[in-house]
Design brief:
460 residues, alpha/beta, Immunoglobulin-like, 2 domains, 8-stranded parallel β-barrel, 5-stranded antiparallel sheet, 16% strand, globular, disordered N terminus
Amino acid sequence: MNFHRLTKGLLPLAAALVLFSPSAKAGADVSGATTRTSPDWLRSGVIYEIFPRDFSPPGNLNGVTARLDEVKNLGVTILWIMPIQPIGEKFRKGEFGSPYSIKDFYAVDPNYGTLDDFKKLVAGAHQRGMKVIMDLVANHTAWDSVMMAHPDFYKQTAQGHVIPPVPEWTDVAGLNYTSPALREYMIAMMKYWIKEADVDGFRCDVAYMVPTDFWEQVRDELTKVKPDIMLLAEASKPELLVKAFDIDYDWPLLHTMDKVLIDGAPTADIRRSWEDSRLRFPKGALHMRVSDDHDEARAVARYGFNGALAASALMFTLDGVPLIYNGMEVGDATESGDPALFDKLNIFWHPKGRPQLRSIYHDLIQLRNQYAALRNSRVDWLHNSDETRLVTFLRADDKDELLITINFSNRPLTGKVDLKNVDGFVPVEISGVQSSNGGPLPMFHLNGFEWRIYHRVVPK
């Protein structure tokens, strides 16, 4: 859930409002600080978001467990499971309601199965070498939540009436973090899921709307239970990454991608967005690179298939941790976000006439696994001959160099990258990608939305 629900028809992205809203900009300048050390399994990972309701025809947890091998074989290392708790009925939106309108944080939605079903899912993922993070909704609850027995847990008017966190979110009631008892309740609940189900972390919904000092409390307490616990903030708020969170959303880059691929903004804006984040965030900040998730229209619907693949090529080759939203790997274009979030729309796992994307995502993931240069924080942006349409950068360490070239327009171009020594670079073969005749570097030709990755061993 994010502010995208408030801005349909006003801004192209939740990110736009979140980035420029007072809640996102509040806080001290932390650009000189250093982030906490995140687990290696996160920094080297690939996150896969699952909406259990839509992931399989049964729409339950067992439907997810049945396909764990398929997800594992794609190369995924971290499963993010969207909320599994019972959904409130009072003021519900749609037939099923938003999974972010939770009735009981300690329970499992009967439509999804049982606690044992969830434990089996987590254990099955662990057996396959994958981590599991739960979606945590700390900002609000359903109106018929069991927590309503504690009115002091909620935001209220001067007259004592419980209110939503923002007026437009009519299906949820806002939580009040000035209450020490609420803080204790929420931290105890998170500890419960770690101890009971052995989850490895939490994706924290609208984390920017919850006080930073609460999240720092959470970090201190959960680390005592599981030292390598991971916290992902649904936010682009620099102060959250100093002590509390391991990683956040790169909403600014997602917003920039929309501007480039939908509105025709120059591709130089992509580099500027990345550089701006480096300046604003604490040193070592880790961002989730996202082009598709449950809050947006599918990337293939926003950008077209080739444009969506070009966006993915960027997200999988930049620093940070890439996200796959379930169905993205087959080109599923089923509606997502509001209002589809409140109903059941199954993923089309075998859509007719779609490109064979699964092998492409598989090979991009394998490339990340093969070369440590794609998992470090170093990105060397390279000037090129057409920075309105073309992005070029280098990922390198002391062993390997990978040159990435991406045409973000639908028209072919012949370009030149500003790289003095091009000796030894060889195009990397990606299954399912038909590359045009690129020619010898530093010159190259790319068709519309075409991208190419070159590799060489670092010259001695």
